[in-house]
Design goal:
Layout (H helix, E strand, L loop, with lengths): L12 H10 E5 L3 H6 L7 H8 L12 E4 L4 E11 L8 E11 L4 E5 L12 H5 L7 H33 L5 H33 L13 H69 L5 H4 L3 H22 L4
């Protein structure tokens, strides 16, 4: 089953009011604002998660989606990859979105990513909703937009890896190593977020996320959730491919460093070899004879220098012939 098409932007005020009454969206709200939209049966741990501020990192928050007696609670992290230019390091931060789905409404709490960036913008997801959509479909549009962000992120990571590979010959080795390390760290963080997000949506497909005594996700909604699951699965496969590409770039960079070191050692060896014979000649004439030849022969000193020059030129020609230099 294909995903629902995105309709044109709604212009009917009544439709907007109806959507706002069913989908309550809060951006970086206060504790009182959050509590005013929660029923009394919401668990205190859920309330604590909704009240908690975000730091834009995936280290302290783990995505989840679980059902309960009267509500479905979910935590989603939306990845954002920012870049300030070719020589700037890519940095990934995460926009946290907490979800409380009840029989009457969908509550989303969007949190500002600390000092890293703004909160998640649900404009695309809300613009995809129709008047006839049930609450489960509203949540589908939300998670579908989040899944698209993961697919786009993996594509951008692949482009970034290709850029690093192209820049290996031009950039400083320390900068390349730092970029490779940053990309590897980003991919580990993305994998840490992507896997539990995919597992949570898999629970919707299996019918394990629903309200007690009520079906908040009808069968047709569970089927369209399969599109989101496939997108996340495609993102996971793309992430594995990106990891292999990054490993290839790292091996190529290490091979380049080894070749550069070999060239340096080759040059040093040539220099040492070129100086070897002149050193021998100087040692032979200067230390092993009591009466140096130039004392009794007018051209002896010039002969020693000529011998040094000819041996040096001969060695250089030999090295070039063997393609050592």
């Amino acid at each position: 089953m294909t995903a629902p098409t995105v309709p044109a932007p709604r212009t009917d005020n009544r439709s907007l009011r109806d959507l706002q009454s069913r989908w309550v969206d809060l951006c970086d709200p206060s504790v009182d604002e959050v509590d005013s939209h929660l029923s009394s049966d919401v668990d205190h741990l859920v309330r604590a998660q909704l009240h908690k501020r975000s730091h834009g990192s995936a280290d302290q928050v783990r995505p989840l989606l679980r059902g309960g007696d009267s509500y479905v609670f979910g935590v989603f992290l939306v990845p954002v990859l920012e870049n300030e230019g070719e020589l700037a390091e890519e940095k990934t931060y995460y926009q946290e979105v907490d979800v409380v789905l009840t029989r009457r409404s969908l509550l989303t709490v969007r949190k500002v990513a600390g000092s890293r960036g703004p909160a998640y913008d649900p404009l695309v997801a809300r613009g995809s909703c129709r008047d006839s959509d049930c609450l489960g479909t509203l949540m589908y549009h939300l998670v579908d937009d989040i899944a698209e962000r993961f697919v786009d992120l993996v594509d951008r990571l692949t482009e970034e890896i290709e850029e690093v590979e192209d820049g290996i010959e031009r950039w400083d080795d320390r900068f390349v190593r730092r970029r490779i390390s940053q990309l590897r760290h980003d991919m580990l963080q993305i994998r840490r977020v992507l896997s539990p997000t995919r597992d949570g949506l898999r629970a919707v497909l299996d019918g394990r996320v629903d309200l007690d005594g009520d079906e908040i996700f009808p069968r047709d909604v569970e089927l369209v959730f399969n599109n989101v699951y496939e997108k996340l699965l495609r993102a996971s496969e793309g992430l594995e491919l990106a990891r292999d590409l990054l490993a290839g770039v790292r091996d190529y960079h290490q091979g380049k460093i080894a070749n550069d070191q070999n060239d340096v050692m080759k040059r040093l060896t040539v220099i040492a070899s070129v100086l070897l014979l002149p050193t021998f000649i100087v040692g032979l004439y200067g230390q092993n004879f009591i009466d140096m030849p130039e004392v009794h022969w007018l051209w002896g000193y010039a002969w020693s220098w000529g011998l040094i020059g000819m041996s040096t030129v001969g060695q250089i020609m030999f090295f070039k012939w063997r393609k050592w230099i």
